[in-house]
Write a structure and sequence with these properties.
Elements (H helix, E strand, L loop, with lengths): L1 H35 L10 H4 L5 H11 L6 E8 L6 H17 L9 E2 L5 E8 L6 H14 L7 E5 H36 L6 H25 L5 H30 L5 H28 L7 H32 L21 H11 L1 H16 L20 H12 L8 E6 L3 H9 L4 E10 L2 E8 L6 H18 L2 E3 L1 H35 L3 H24 L13 H29 L4 H28 L7 H33 L26 E2 L15 E2 L1
Antiparallel strand pairs: 1-3, 1-4, 2-3, 5-7, 5-8, 6-7, 9-10
Length: 716
């Protein structure tokens, strides 16, 4: 009776565990919900927010914030008529600018600057009233745009730095919702196709949504507690990581759980067995991604350094939800969640021809040829990186051109000898006159004027002769810094200088972060696989995939998509994500290969068994992850489109070419050496048996093996 009661208590305890886990997650979600709702409000999307503290342009922005009136919102009103402005056009423009001046507090009276060809009239407008409040700035810009209107052939555009910041703010503000819903839609469609069940897909999708909410709350906490920079880019990538990586973990767990339901009568016991079986691989893969992302903390760029912890909390939130909340829900729902393909206890799965077994068998026929052809193909694709367009300009960063960019292009055509974007020099107030005189004589400078003064500093606005972000303007910025910084103690900034500092910081970060990522991933793989050769092989494979994915980008970005440049941060971010995420699939494959080797399988058999058993799940996970990153292509920002394209292509290459053929064939060719220097790299010692004396036997009828119909003698 006591044993029976103990069994009842154990069964009751097991039934209570999923309910307890579900209750804890509901409580956590209620507590985290308000903080998750504040996530979009902490995103910083000005160019200067991406820069390191040491950059000249960062110092300029900070000093400007302390000048009288705080940060100025600078706009440029552009009136244009193709055939030339009429007197009525000029009168209308003057009346509208006067109305804007009467409604808003401007820093001065705007003065018209006509173009030489008479087609364009430019009015610089500035106000310090919005200050550093983005909502007030956007309201000011929208108000000016509402008052400035053309008609009957007269176009009116509102641009300048303030207009650009407002347009970027609106784009980034729409990212969170658009990206979340688009990613959920893609994941839903893929899960329905994979599971072929009207109910099962809802479970991992709901859990992924919970993980996304928890990740947003955690990222908000990091920002508030440690000042971590959160941008629209890092927020969008975090959403994709949570849904993509979380769905991958769910695919692995559910696949193993389905197998265990055929071996265990109770779903609780089946889930325990599933977690024991695939849990280590899931933990290792998520740990690798987290370690790779945390290497971004060594970056100098604020945006890259902030993406490290933001992306990490996304991966960890997905991991926590998929190994606790998902198992609890699946156990509570029981076998019926798999309807109509319910795995019955004691049944055998339907025998199907494995595509990956067939692919692996084809690779074994000529492994050297397969490996060589694969390496040549990846190398040839990598050459496409030479065709990548040059550095992306800020005005080319949008797939759908906003009003501020249209205004900038109109100004570039109408004022070819005068930049419409100022270079800002912040000079010590006592030296302002000397700095102004020096700036006017600097190479490439068309005009220089003094502006606000306060806190011991004076603002000097310098206009170059060359177009914004051109090579000639870059030379002018470098000349100003070389001629002013050392002698006068100035800082040279402004929008174009910010882009220059951005590219310089990203070049430095590549040199620092890339070796750190490789070292961190290698150490984790070596500890998991207990080998030095296998981790090295996997790292070489993912680096080759990264190069090939960039090469495909070079063949597509300019010739096909018409992009005018490549984001300077594409190389570093795509490397971090492709190495960390690509190694995930290598972990699943090599870990299973090692298990087969430990069980005594020969190298070729171990490789084929690992490919056959993990290939389907890895393929499904790779397609889901690639699709979630491809969703970034729906956004109106070229840097995010480029990043999503390269990662999606890289994941597909890794899933269907590198893992299936190259890693498998390389493992076959290396044989046991792939596990060097571990014990699996050594040939098993032959079993030695001592010769035993002949047993004393009694022979019965039919015992003589040499006589037909007789059996061997048996020892007494």
């Amino acid at each position: 009776m006591g044993a029976a009661r103990t069994g009842i208590r154990k069964t009751g305890g097991r039934r209570a565990v999923p309910w307890v886990v579900l209750g804890l997650w509901l409580a956590a979600l209620v507590l985290a919900g308000p903080f998750a709702g504040k996530f979009s409000g902490i995103q910083q999307n000005r160019s200067v927010d991406y820069l390191p503290d040491s950059a000249d342009s960062t110092q300029v922005a900070r000093v400007q914030d302390r000048l009288p009136g705080g940060q100025a919102t600078d706009l440029v009103l552009v009136y244009h008529r193709d055939g030339g402005l009429t007197a009525a056009d000029r009168e209308k423009a003057g009346a509208q600018v006067a109305e804007i001046g009467s409604k808003y507090e401007l820093t001065g009276t705007p003065k018209a600057v006509p173009s030489r060809d008479g087609t364009t009239l430019m009015y610089p407008v500035s106000s310090t009233r919005p200050g550093q409040d983005d909502k007030k700035r956007d309201a000011f810009v929208d108000g000016v745009r509402a008052l400035a209107n053309g008609g009957a052939g007269l176009s009116v555009e509102v641009g300048g730095p303030g207009g650009l910041n407002t347009d970027m703010s609106k784009v980034f503000g729409s990212i969170d919702g658009t990206l979340l819903y688009a990613t959920l839609g893609v994941v839903t469609a893929l899960l329905v196709l994979i599971y072929r069940s009207p109910f099962l897909w809802l479970v991992p999708l709901a859990v992924a949504g919970v993980a996304a909410g928890m990740a947003m709350a955690a990222a908000y906490g990091l920002h508030e507690a440690f000042g971590v920079t959160v941008t629209g880019q890092s927020g969008g990538v975090m959403t994709v990581l949570v849904l993509g990586a979380g769905t991958d973990y769910a695919l692995l767990l559910i696949s193993r759980y389905r197998e265990e339901l055929r071996r265990h009568e109770r779903p609780y016991d089946a889930m325990r067995a599933a977690l024991r079986g695939c849990g280590p691989a899931v933990l290792a893969s998520s740990g690798t991604v987290a370690a790779g992302l945390l290497c971004l903390l060594a970056a100098d760029l604020n945006s890259s350094r902030g993406m490290g912890p933001v992306g990490t909390v996304g991966v960890l939130a997905a991991l926590a939800a998929m190994i606790t909340l998902l198992p609890a829900l699946l156990v509570l729902l029981g076998r019926r969640v798999f309807w109509p393909l319910i795995p019955a206890f004691g049944s055998e799965p339907k025998a199907r021809r494995s595509l990956f077994a067939a692919m692996g068998s084809s690779a074994t026929r000529r492994p050297v040829v397969v490996l060589a052809l694969g390496a040549v193909l990846l190398g040839a694709l990598a050459l496409g990186a030479l065709n990548l367009p040059g550095t992306l300009k800020q005005e080319d960063s949008f797939t759908r051109r906003p009003e501020s960019i249209s205004a900038a292009r109109t100004l570039a055509r109408a004022y070819p000898g005068h930049s419409s974007r100022s270079i800002t020099v912040i000079a010590p107030a006592p030296k302002a006159d000397a700095v102004l005189a020096k700036a006017r004589t600097t190479y490439g400078v068309a005009q220089a004027t003094t502006g606000r003064t306060g806190s011991g500093w004076t603002e000097v606005s310098v206009f170059a002769r060359a177009a914004p972000e051109s090579k000639e303007e870059t030379r002018t910025i470098e000349a100003l810094r070389a001629g002013l910084d050392g002698t006068y103690g100035t800082y040279v900034g402004g929008p174009s200088a910010q882009q220059l500092d951005l590219a310089d910081s990203q070049a430095r970060d590549r040199e620092v972060v890339v070796p750190l990522v490789l070292a961190a991933v290698f150490v984790i793989l070596a500890g998991l696989l207990r080998s030095l050769i296998a981790p090295l092989m996997l790292l070489v494979a993912v680096v080759a995939v990264w190069g090939a994915a960039l090469g495909i980008g070079g063949l597509v970005f300019g010739p096909v998509l018409g992009f005018q440049g490549t984001d300077s941060g594409l190389g570093l971010l795509s490397f971090v994500f492709l190495v960390a995420l690509g190694v995930d699939y290598g972990i699943f494959l090599m870990h299973r290969m090692r298990e087969e080797s430990v069980a005594g399988a020969e190298p070729e058999a171990a490789a084929l068994t690992a490919l056959r058993t993990t290939g389907g799940v890895i393929a499904s996970a790779g397609v889901v992850l690639a699709a979630t990153f491809a969703v970034l292509g729906t956004l109106p920002l070229v840097p995010l489109v480029e990043l999503g394209f390269v990662i999606a292509v890289g994941v597909l290459l890794d899933t269907f070419l590198v893992r299936t053929y190259l890693v498998t064939t390389a493992s076959m060719l290396l044989g046991r050496r792939v596990w060097w220097p571990g014990r699996l790299s050594r040939e098993p010692e032959p079993v030695r048996t001592e010769r035993q004396p002949e047993p004393v036997c009694c022979t019965f009828p039919g015992d003589n093996p040499r006589t037909p119909g007789r059996k061997a003698g048996r020892p007494v």
